[in-house]
Amino acid sequence: MNKKIDIIIPCYNEAENIDYIIAEIDKYIKNLNYEYEFTFIDDGSTDDTYKKIMESSSKRKNINAIK
To answer: What CA–CA distances, in Å, run from 1 to 4, 30, 32, 39, 63?
Structure first.
């Protein structure tokens, strides 16, 4: 059985950084023997943060969003 990591990321006006943070975390975790899941919490952003998270979520099953 693989170990699982839940990565909780609070966001506020971070639309430009969503792809970057996913890529950076992937870079370090992908070679480990872990299953992992992202949960982004959009804390009332006024930019496209939630939209960007949802776009990423539609491409990968391990990305979730809470608004």
So the answer is: 9, 16, 13, 22, 21
Overall residue count recorded for the chain in this entry: 67
Q: Is residue 5 a contact partner of residue 30, using CB atoms and an 8 Å limit?
A: no
Burial of 10-44, coded b for 16+ CB within 10 Å and e otherwise, reads ebeebbeebeebbeeeeeeeeeeeeebebebebee
The low-confidence residues of the chain, meaning pLDDT below 50, are: none
Residue with tokens 């693989």: 2
Supply the pTM of this predicted model: 0.89
pLDDT for the residue 3:
87
pLDDT for res 31:
84
